[in-house]
Write a structure and sequence with these properties.
The complex is a heterodimer of chains A (481) and B (465). Chain A has helices at residues 3-15, 17-72, 85-92, 126-131, 138-143, 148-164, 169-174, 176-181, 187-215, 226-257, 261-290, 296-324, 338-374, 379-391, 395-422, 442-480; strands at residues 95-98, 118-121. By secondary structure, chain A is mainly alpha-helical. In chain A, helix 6 (148-164) runs antiparallel to helix 11, helix 9 (187-215) packs antiparallel against helix 10 and helix 10 crosses helix 11 (261-290). A two-stranded antiparallel sheet of chain A has the order 1-2. Chain A has 16 helices and two strands. The two termini of chain B are 21 Å apart. Chain B has one domain (2-462). Classes of the chains: A mainly alpha (481), B mainly alpha (465).
Chain lengths: 481, 465
C-alpha cells in the first residue's frame, strides 16, 4: 500500500466531523462507565474489608471471653457461652468467605450484582447461608449497569458502523470508486486500510481504558495479583478487538452488497438491532420455552415439608442418624442435648433434601448448558460473557467460588460437628479453619476466552474474505449497472 | 377531504411490501413473547398456589407445642405473579419470591428468580410490553419519518401546495392514516384479550388494569407518532428525519435507562446487605427503653395482684415480655426497611421523571406498575407480609399471656389456637394507588403527547416545500 494513500486517508479522517463526534461520544461514555466501575469496586472492597474486620473482632472477643469465663468463672447462658462449640460455630466465629475482585472488576459488572461475591459460613444450614444476598435495586438489576462492557457491546458497534457509513456503497454512490479502481494498488487493500483505520479509532480508546483500569492501584490486599490482572487484560483486549473486528467486517461486507448509502446504513442498523437486541431476546424466549428455570417457590415448599418430617421423627431419627454416621457418634454423644439434637436434625433435613437440591441443581446446570450454546446466536452475547469472564465477574467464576464455599462449609462442619456432639467446653478458637480463596488456573480462563475469540475472529475473517472478494468484483458490477 | 386523504395514505401503506414484512416479523415475535410469558406466569401461579396452600396446611397440622415454638416455626409468604404479568413481567425476575414470617425479626425477602436463570437473561427478554414499548416505536419511526420529509424530498409537497391543498389538513390526514394503521394492528388484539378476561371472569381490578394499560399504550404510541410527524415536518430530507428519530429511540430505550439509573443510584444509594444488617443489629441491641417498660409493667402487675414475683401472677408475664420486645423492634424494622424501600422508590421516581428525556423510561415504569410487577407492588407485598407477621405474633403472645404455667408445666397450645391465626392472603394495591404512584410517568407521557402536538399545530399550517 502506497504511503501517500495512507497519509491521505488519515488526513481525510482528521477532517471528518463524524470522526470527532464518534470520539467525543465514545470518550464521554467510557469515562462515565469507568468512574462508575471504579467507585463500585472501591465500595465493594470497603465492605469486604469491613466484613473481614468484623469477623476477626468477633472471634477475638469470643476467644478472650472464653478464657476469662474459664479463669474467673461467671454465669452465662449456654446459648451465649463462648465455650459452647455450637455457639461459636454458629454465631461467634461466622466467617464471610469473599471472592476477591480482579484488577479488571471495574470494567464489567457481569453477574456480580446478582450473585453475591461473599457468603457467610457457619453451622447454619447451607441453603440458609447461600440465600443471603445483596440488596441491589431490582430496577437496576433488570436494566443493567452502565459499565465499560455495555459501551463495548452495545454502543461501540453503533459508533463504528456510523464511521463506516455504508462504505464502500458511499464511494460508489459519490463516484469515487471508479476513480480508485483505475489507480495503482488493489481496491481490497484500500478497503482494508480504510476500515482498519476506522476500527482503530473506536478500538484504541477502549483498550486505553482497559490499560488504565488495570494500572490503577487497587484499594487493598483483597484484590487478585498483578500478574493475573495483566493476563486478564490481554484476554479482555483480544475479546474487544475480536468483537469490533467482526462489526467492521460485517459493515464493509454489507457496504459492498448495498446499492446506495441509505440502504447500506439502514441494513447495518437492522443488523445491529438483530444481533444486539433481537436475537438475544429471542434466544431467551426459546430458552424459557424449552428449558424453564427451576422454581424456588417449589423448592421452599418441599424444603418445609422435609424439615417437618425430620423434626417429627425426633430423637428416633437422631439415633438412626448416628447409626448411619458412626463418624459423628463418639462415645460421649449426649443425644438429649439440645445442641446435639439440633445439629443432627439439621443434618437429617439436609440429607432428606439432597435429592431435591440435586434435582434443582441439575435443572439449573442443564439450563446453563443451553445458555452456553445460545451464546452462539449472537456475537454480542458471546462477547458480553467473555468480557465478564475476563473481568472476573462471570457466572463461571462465581460457580467456581461456590464450589469452594461448599468445600469450606463441609470442613467447618467436620471441625465443629464432633465438638458440638461431645458437648465439652470449646477452647479451640485458634484452630478454627480459615478460608483461602484458590485462584482459578489461568489456562482454564484462557480456554473459555479462546472460544469467544475464536467465534468473533472466525466470523470476522469469513466476512472480511467475502467483502474482499466482493470488492474485487465491484468495478465489474459498476460496469454492468 | 380528510377521509380521502386517509384512504389514499392507507392504500399506499397497504401497497408497501416492507410494512407487511415488518408487521409479520413483529407478529411472530409478539406471539412467541406472549406464549413464553404466559407459560411462565402459569407455572409461577401454580407453584405459588400449591406452596401457599401447603404452608397453611403445615401451620394447621402442627402438634401441641408452646405458642412461641409455633412463632419460631413461622410461615412463609409467597409473592403471587402480578395480575398482568403475562403482558409485562417487569421486575418480576429480579424481585424476591418469598419471605419467612417468624418471631422476633422482619426477614429480608429471599430468592430472585433471575439468580437461577443464567447470564443470558441479562440481555433482556422479549415480552409483549417490550414489543409495544421498544419495537413498535421503531416501526413507527420507519413508517412516519418519510411521511412528510419524503414528500418534500421527492418534490411532491411543492405540487400539493401549488394545487391549494391546506397543509394542516394534509398533515392531519397523514397522522390519521398512521394512527389507523396502528389501531388496526393493536385494537383487535386488545379487544381479544379484554374478551378473554371477561369470559374467564377475571377480577374487576385486573380488567380495570388492562383497560388502563390500553390507555397507556395509546398515550405512549400516540406521543411517539406525533413526535415522528413533527420531526418529519421539520426535516429537509428523509435521512435527517431518520437519523434524529433513530437517535431518540436509541437514547430512550438503550442508553438513558442505564445512565439515569446510575445517577439515581448515586443520588439515593442502596446500602450493601452487610451494612444494612450491621445498622439494623446495632439499633436492635439497644434495649434500655424496653427494659424500663418491662420493669414498669411488672411493678404495676405485682402491685395490682399483690404478689412479690411475676411467677405468682395469674397471667404469664413471658407473653407480655415477648410482645413488648416485638413492639420495641417494630420501630427499628420500620425505620430500616422503610429507608431501604424508600431509596428504591426514590430511584423509581427519578427514573419516571427522566421520561421527559426518554419516554421509554416512563412507559416501562407505568406498564410494570399496571401489570403488578414493579417495586410498588413488591413493597406492598413485603408490608402486607410484615403486618401479617405482627398480627400472628400478637395472637400467639396473647395466648401465652393468658396461660400461665400450672404446677411448673408450660402451656401447650393445639390446633384450636393455630386455626385462629388468619391465613396470609395477599391482594394487590388498588388501581387508583398504582396510578397515583406512577403519576410522574403518566404526566411525562402526556407531555410527550401534547408537546409534539402543539409543535405540529404550529408547523403544519406553515409547511414549506
Amino acid at each position: 500500500m502506497n504511503s501517500a494513500v495512507v497519509r491521505g486517508e488519515v488526513r481525510l479522517l482528521l477532517r471528518d466531523p463524524a470522526v470527532w463526534t464518534v470520539l467525543l461520544v465514545l470518550v464521554v461514555t467510557l469515562i462515565g462507565a469507568v468512574i462508575q466501575g471504579v467507585l463500585r469496586k472501591h465500595a465493594e472492597i470497603a465492605v469486604f474489608t469491613e466484613m473481614a474486620n468484623a469477623d476477626a473482632a468477633r472471634l477475638e472477643s469470643a476467644t478472650w471471653d472464653a478464657i476469662r469465663l474459664e479463669e474467673q468463672g461467671g454465669n452465662v447462658s449456654r446459648f451465649r457461652d463462648p465455650r459452647n462449640a455450637d455457639v461459636v460455630g454458629r454465631r461467634l466465629a461466622v466467617q464471610h468467605l469473599i471472592l476477591p475482585p480482579t484488577g479488571l472488576a471495574a470494567l464489567a459488572v457481569g453477574q456480580s450484582d446478582l450473585h453475591p461475591a461473599w457468603h457467610p459460613v457457619s453451622l447454619e444450614p447451607r441453603d440458609q447461608l447461600l440465600a443471603e444476598g445483596e440488596l441491589n435495586a431490582p430496577r437496576q438489576l433488570a436494566v443493567g449497569r452502565f459499565d465499560v462492557s455495555f459501551v463495548v457491546v452495545f454502543v461501540a458497534p453503533l459508533l463504528l458502523l456510523g464511521l463506516l457509513a455504508g462504505s464502500p456503497a458511499r464511494e460508489r454512490e459519490s463516484g469515487i470508486l471508479p476513480l480508485l479502481a483505475v489507480q495503482r494498488g488493489r481496491l481490497g487493500g484500500w478497503l482494508a486500510l480504510r476500515t482498519g483505520l476506522r476500527l482503530l479509532i473506536v478500538l484504541l480508546p477502549i483498550l486505553v481504558v482497559g490499560v488504565v483500569v488495570a494500572w490503577l492501584p487497587g484499594p487493598g490486599p483483597l484484590e487478585t495479583a498483578a500478574s493475573e490482572t495483566w493476563l486478564r487484560l490481554g484476554l479482555w483486549g483480544l475479546a474487544v478487538a475480536g468483537y469490533l473486528t467482526f462489526w467492521a467486517a460485517l459493515g464493509v461486507w454489507m457496504g459492498t452488497l448495498a446499492l446506495d448509502t441509505a440502504r447500506a446504513v439502514l441494513a447495518l442498523a437492522a443488523a445491529w438491532l438483530l444481533l444486539v437486541i433481537l436475537l438475544p431476546a429471542i434466544a431467551n424466549v426459546a430458552l424459557e420455552l424449552s428449558y424453564p428455570q427451576p422454581s424456588r417457590i417449589e423448592y421452599v415448599d418441599a424444603m418445609r415439608a422435609a424439615t417437618d418430617l425430620a423434626r417429627a421423627e425426633g430423637s428416633e431419627v437422631l439415633q438412626q442418624y448416628l447409626e448411619d454416621h458412626p463418624e459423628m457418634a463418639g462415645d460421649d454423644v449426649d443425644v438429649d442435648d439440645f445442641f446435639a439434637q439440633r445439629l443432627l436434625v439439621q443434618a437429617r433435613v439436609e440429607e432428606a433434601l439432597r435429592p431435591l437440591s440435586t434435582a434443582f441443581e441439575q435443572q439449573r446446570q442443564a439450563r446453563a448448558r443451553q445458555v452456553r450454546w445460545l451464546r452462539w446466536a449472537s456475537p454480542a452475547m458471546l462477547t458480553s460473557e467473555g468480557l465478564a469472564d475476563a473481568a472476573g465477574t462471570s457466572e463461571s467464576r462465581q460457580a467456581d467460588f461456590l464450589q469452594q464455599v461448599h468445600g469450606f462449609h463441609d470442613a467447618w462442619r467436620d471441625f465443629f460437628g464432633p465438638r458440638v456432639l461431645a458437648g465439652r467446653p470449646f477452647f479451640d478458637h485458634d484452630r478454627i479453619p480459615t478460608f483461602e480463596y484458590s485462584h482459578e488456573p489461568p489456562t482454564r480462563l484462557a480456554a473459555r476466552m479462546a472460544v469467544v475469540m475464536l467465534g468473533c475472529f472466525g466470523l470476522s475473517v469469513a466476512l472480511g474474505l467475502l467483502a474482499l472478494r466482493r470488492a474485487r468484483s465491484l468495478p465489474k458490477v459498476m460496469g454492468n449497472e | 377531504m380528510i377521509a380521502r386523504l386517509v384512504a389514499k395514505e392507507l392504500l399506499e401503506l397497504r401497497r408497501d411490501g416492507r410494512i407487511w414484512m415488518l408487521l409479520a416479523i413483529l407478529g411472530v415475535l409478539a406471539a412467541g413473547a406472549a406464549l413464553s410469558t404466559w407459560q411462565q406466569v402459569r407455572t409461577q401461579h401454580a407453584a405459588w398456589h400449591a406452596a401457599s396452600a401447603g404452608e397453611q396446611e403445615r401451620w394447621l397440622a402442627q402438634d401441641e407445642k408452646h405458642p412461641h415454638s409455633a412463632a419460631h416455626y413461622g410461615v412463609y409468604a409467597f409473592r403471587p405473579p402480578g395480575p398482568l404479568a403475562t403482558f409485562d413481567p417487569g421486575l418480576d425476575p429480579y424481585l424476591p419470591v418469598t419471605v419467612w414470617m417468624e418471631a422476633h425479626r422482619q426477614n429480608e425477602a429471599l430468592y430472585r428468580p433471575a439468580q437461577d436463570a443464567g447470564s443470558a437473561v441479562r440481555f433482556g427478554r422479549l415480552t409483549p410490553a417490550t414489543i409495544v414499548g421498544a419495537l413498535l416505536p421503531l416501526l413507527i419511526v420507519l413508517v412516519a419519518a418519510p411521511a412528510i420529509s419524503g414528500e418534500r424530498e421527492r418534490g411532491t409537497l411543492t405540487q400539493l401546495l401549488a394545487q391549494g391543498v391546506a397543509p394542516g389538513r394534509w398533515v392531519l390526514g397523514k397522522g390519521l392514516a398512521l394512527a389507523t394503521l396502528l389501531a388496526g394492528l393493536l385494537l383487535p388484539l386488545w379487544l381479544l384479550v379484554t374478551a378473554v378476561l371477561i369470559v374467564a371472569s377475571a377480577p374487576t381490578d385486573t380488567l380495570a388494569r388492562w383497560l388502563a394499560a390500553g390507555a397507556l399504550v395509546a398515550l405512549y404510541l400516540g406521543g411517539f407518532l406525533l413526535t415522528c410527524l413533527f420531526v418529519s415536518a421539520c426535516s429537509r430530507s428523509v435521512r435527517t428525519a431518520l437519523l434524529v428519530l433513530l437517535s431518540v429511540w436509541a437514547v430512550s430505550t438503550l442508553i438513558a435507562p442505564r445512565a439515569v439509573l446510575e445517577w439515581a443510584q448515586w443520588r439515593h444509594p442502596t446500602p450493601s446487605s452487610f451494612e444494612f444488617r450491621q445498622a439494623l443489629q446495632a439499633d436492635l441491641r439497644d434495649r434500655s427503653e424496653l427494659d424500663a417498660r418491662l420493669a414498669r409493667r411488672a411493678a404495676e402487675l405485682l402491685e395490682a395482684h399483690a404478689v412479690d414475683r411475676v411467677e405468682q401472677l395469674p397471667v404469664n408475664f413471658d407473653g407480655f415480655r415477648l410482645q413488648a420486645a416485638e413492639e420495641h423492634d417494630y420501630a427499628v424494622f420500620d425505620a430500616h426497611f422503610g429507608r431501604l424501600h424508600e431509596g428504591y422508590l426514590a430511584q423509581e421516581r427519578l427514573l419516571q421523571w427522566f421520561g421527559v428525556l426518554a419516554p421509554y423510561l416512563a412507559f416501562s415504569a407505568a406498564s410494570s406498575g399496571l401489570s403488578g410487577t414493579d417495586l410498588l407492588h413488591y413493597r406492598h407485598f413485603a408490608d402486607s407480609a410484615e403486618q401479617h407477621r405482627r398480627v400472628m405474633q400478637e395472637m400467639l403472645n396473647e395466648a401465652i399471656y393468658r396461660n400461665p404455667e400450672v404446677d411448673g408445666q408450660r402451656y401447650l397450645a393445639g390446633p384450636e389456637l393455630w386455626a385462629t391465626v388468619p391465613e396470609f392472603e395477599y391482594s394487590a394495591p388498588s388501581l387508583g394507588r398504582i396510578i397515583s404512584g406512577h403519576a410522574p410517568a403518566f404526566a411525562v407521557l402526556t407531555g410527550w403527547l401534547l408537546l409534539p402536538l402543539m409543535g405540529l399545530l404550529r408547523v403544519a399550517p406553515r409547511l414549506q416545500p
